[in-house]
Amino acid sequence: MQTDKPEFPMRINKYLAQQKYCTRREADEIIKKGLVSINGRPAVLGDKVTQSDKVELKWRQTKHRYFAYNKPRGIITHSAQQDEEEIKEILPIEGVFPLGRLDKDSYGLIILTDDGRITDALLNPERAHEKEYEVRTTDELPSNFKAKMEKGIDIGGYVTKPCKVEILGDRKFSITLTEGKKHQIRRMCGFFGASTSNLERKRIMNITLGGLKPGEYRAIQGAELDTFMKSLGF
């Protein structure tokens, strides 16, 4: 079986990103500041390295911050339009950004950070990280709802991946996905002719919403953060 191997020579910013020191954009910035050397000489933008080259960093990364945030209903995650409110406009933490999205009418857990390194590791669909939601519908769930949802639903030219569903009531269920197509859960419910009245994200991997009220946040740290970062490959 063939395995993907790093291709050398490799651009220095890509090399630093693959070594998980920083993102490519951050690498370019520290190279400009003269904080990276290759075989003892200062690196410059566009430099390439081989496996035998010695790459050193004088730069020491500041400690990143990670927060669990309960996004209220009606708040936009990114790119608010006129008369809409965005997370960054109501959040009292500066310098962080949301990882992923929740649509305007959905609410619940969003992870906020200033660590650009983990964006792809968390959001890339190939990584298949679990996200758990609790959903209420305006219509009663059919008897075959759980079996069909777990097997996969055609939501318009795309069949969803297998998932886990727990029935919590006539009009209530929880669902754990490892993907996140646009409005996926709403479209899956629509397959049965059911509309969602409430959609709350409760968990992303090992990070849970817990007792956070809408608009509240808490720092992710200690063993919880260690488990989260290890699962992302850091």
Helix content: 10-25%
What is the averaged pLDDT score? 90
Strand content: 25-35%
Structural class: alpha+beta
CATH superfamily of the largest domain: Pseudouridine synthase I, catalytic domain, N-terminal subdomain
Description:
The chain has 234 residues and is α+β, with helices and mostly antiparallel strands. The protein has helices at residues 12-18, 24-32, 87-90, 118-123, 145-151, 184-190, 222-232, and strands spanning 10-11, 36-38, 41-42, 48-49, 55-57, 66-71, 75-76, 85-86, 97-99, 107-113, 131-137, 164-169, 172-177, 196-204, 207-208, 217-219. It has 7 helices and 16 strands. 22% of the residues are buried. The mean pLDDT is 90.
Keywords:
nine-stranded mixed β-sheet, alpha+beta, 3 domains, 234 residues, three-stranded antiparallel β-sheet, Structural Genomics Hypothetical 15.5 Kd Protein In mrcA-pckA Intergenic Region, Chain A
Short description:
The protein is α+β, with helices and mostly antiparallel strands. The chain has helices spanning 12-18, 24-32, 87-90, 118-123, 145-151, 184-190, 222-232; strands at residues 10-11, 36-38, 41-42, 48-49, 55-57, 66-71, 75-76, 85-86, 97-99, 107-113, 131-137, 164-169, 172-177, 196-204, 207-208, 217-219. It folds into 3 domains: 10-57, Roll (Structural Genomics Hypothetical 15.5 Kd Protein In mrcA-pckA Intergenic Region, Chain A), CATH 3.10.290; 66-124 and 213-232, 2-Layer Sandwich (Alpha-Beta Plaits); 130-204, Alpha-Beta Plaits (2-Layer Sandwich).
